[in-house]
Structure formats: structure tokens, C-alpha cells
């Protein structure tokens, strides 16, 4: 399948949160979103906004940096939010049960490079890059599975 690409300029954290909510409204179980970028690029902010937009009642959404995975029951189904920064082997990822969740939950994965060969072929990849202004981000979005065409449609001009 050919790779599809989309670039978005996110002018501030509020616009990033709105874009995350736009995507959240179209997600379903089995969707995997891979969030990459440098420390401080906005991966957790994006994930937090996406998760909170699907909650029936506001709830704190902490970074899973130390817990590795946080799960949430939402209106769209179960969400797994994983931060793989501290992991060093594929074995550790398999022990988390994350690969099973790829089939049954909505999964948001920070530091997806740690997945190695476990990266799902049908995942949506979002790389966040710091812009020239302090709060500006560039989102480089890539996918091959056509299921994402409609899901990213609100992001297209």
C-alpha cells in the first residue's frame, strides 16, 4: 500500500488539543496511533487531549512515563496509553500485553521506535516537531492503511 502523508502546523496547545479531539471522534477499537518526537514536543499533550475528549466525565490523564501503560474506559471503548521511553527490549513490551491490546483497544504509543518489529502495519504515525515559535508544532502524519483516510479527513484543508 502506498504511504499517505499530511503535514499540519499546530499554532498552540489549544489547536493541538482540538486536532487530537477531531481524531478521537473517529477512532475505534483496533486503531493504533504512534506518537513520536523529541522530549517536550507535545506527545503526551496530544494523547491527553485525545483521551479526555472521549471521557464521559473529566478525569486526570497522567503521563505513563513511570507506569508504562495507563488504561481508560471511554465512550469509544478502552484506550491504552503507553510510554515506551524507558523500555529496552521487545520482551518487555510483550510482557505489558500491548501487542494484544493493538487488536482490542485504541492504543496511543509514545516512543514507538521501541516497538521495533512489533509496530503494526496499519498504525497511524504522528511525528511532532517543535516549530520556530515556542508553542508551535509541526505534525508529520503518515499512514498506509486506507482506514485512516476518513479518520484524518477533518485535518485536511
Q: N-to-C SSE series?
A: EHEHEEHHEEEH
| Number of structural domains | 1
CATH topology: Rossmann fold
Count of β-strands = 7
Q: Roughly what is the average pLDDT, rounded to an integer?
A: 93
| Large-scale geometry | globular
Overall helicity: 25-40%
The H-level CATH homologous superfamily, spelled out, is: P-loop containing nucleotide triphosphate hydrolases
User: What is the CA-based Rg, rounded?
Assistant: 14 Å
CATH class label: Alpha Beta
What labels describe this entry?
globular, 5 helices, Rossmann fold, alpha/beta, 28% strand, 157 residues
Give an account of the 3D structure.
- This protein has a single domain (4-152), classed as P-loop containing nucleotide triphosphate hydrolases (Rossmann fold, 3-Layer(aba) Sandwich), CATH 3.40.50.300.
- The protein is 27% helix and 28% strand.
- It is built from five helices and seven strands.
Write the layout of secondary structure elements.
Layout: E1 4-10, H1 13-24, E2 32-36, H2 43-53, E3 69-74, E4 77-83, H3 90-96, H4 98-104, E5 106-110, E6 124-130, E7 137-143, H5 147-151
Parallel strand pairs: 2-5, 2-6, 4-5
Antiparallel strand pairs: 1-7, 3-4, 6-7
Helix pairs in contact: 1-2
Provide a brief overview of the structure:
The protein has helices at 13-24, 43-53, 90-96, 98-104, 147-151; strands at residues 4-10, 32-36, 69-74, 77-83, 106-110, 124-130, 137-143.
